[in-house]
Write a structure and sequence with these properties.
Length: about 230
């Protein structure tokens, strides 16, 4: 099984990029792809993949961080893809807290970034940018050449080893180059032997497990207080 992880902030164009890449794969008949869509509350993206006759499964993390949820369920997702007779698994996951990164060893790890967001946005994505092997920029048609070069230079400083690609989410321009890379992805024999490229936050506080009262008396577990001259209450 070959695995591609696609992550990025909400509404950056992850699904559009994946769909364009899948169209190239379907035409070339190089792989038998399957897709796992990880989201929080709701997702309607299954219909897009089903329209391409591609096996798809959706996981909703509900009250869990989607990246934590993915790490817990990835073994089951891979087994599901194998049961679908697939040899290429694309996992799309929402990134919310900007401290997590879903990327794992031996996968092709792709971070999608909206180029129209602030120049400071990539830095705020943390390990999602710094551990990616490929960075995809969307909506670059809305930038000037100078603005795009500044953004790409900033990304190169954050992650010097990542390859950068510009993809138009509407026309699909630029997606064919990424699809061609998939042939070089190493085959993964055992998902259980892989590791996350970056640790996840140790956020096991009372609110993680359902507490809704905000008084300090109800703070339990790992608690990180701000410093206000030695006072935090």
């Amino acid at each position: 099984m070959r695995i591609i992880m696609v992550a990025g902030a909400p509404a950056v164009g992850k699904t559009a990029v994946i769909l364009h890449i899948l169209n190239h794969i379907i035409r070339l008949k190089t792989f038998r792809p399957a897709v796992a869509k990880m989201d929080c509350i709701k997702s309607t993206d299954e219909s897009y993949y089903k329209a391409l006759s591609i096996p798809v499964i959706t996981g909703l993390s509900q009250n869990l961080c989607p990246d934590h949820y993915l790490a817990i369920n990835i073994n089951g997702i891979v087994n599901w893809a194998i049961s679908q007779n697939s040899d290429l698994l694309i996992i799309e996951t929402a990134g919310l807290c900007n401290r997590c990164a879903p990327f794992i060893t031996k996968a092709l790890n792709i971070c999608v970034i909206d180029s129209t967001s602030s120049i400071k946005s990539p830095e705020k994505l943390g390990p999602m940018v710094t551990t990616a092997e490929i960075i995809v920029l969307t909506k670059c048609d809305m930038l000037s050449q100078a603005e795009r070069e500044i953004l790409q230079s900033h990304l190169e400083q954050l992650n010097p080893t990542a390859e950068q690609y510009v993809v138009n989410g509407i026309t699909g321009a630029g997606s064919k180059k990424i699809a061609a890379i998939f042939k070089s992805i190493p085959f993964m024999d055992d998902i259980g032997q892989q590791k996350l490229l970056h640790d996840m936050p140790g956020a096991v506080c009372s609110y993680c497990v359902g507490e809704i009262r905000i008084g300090q008396a109800y703070h339990q577990g790992i608690v990180n207080y701000m410093s206000f001259g030695g006072h935090h209450d």
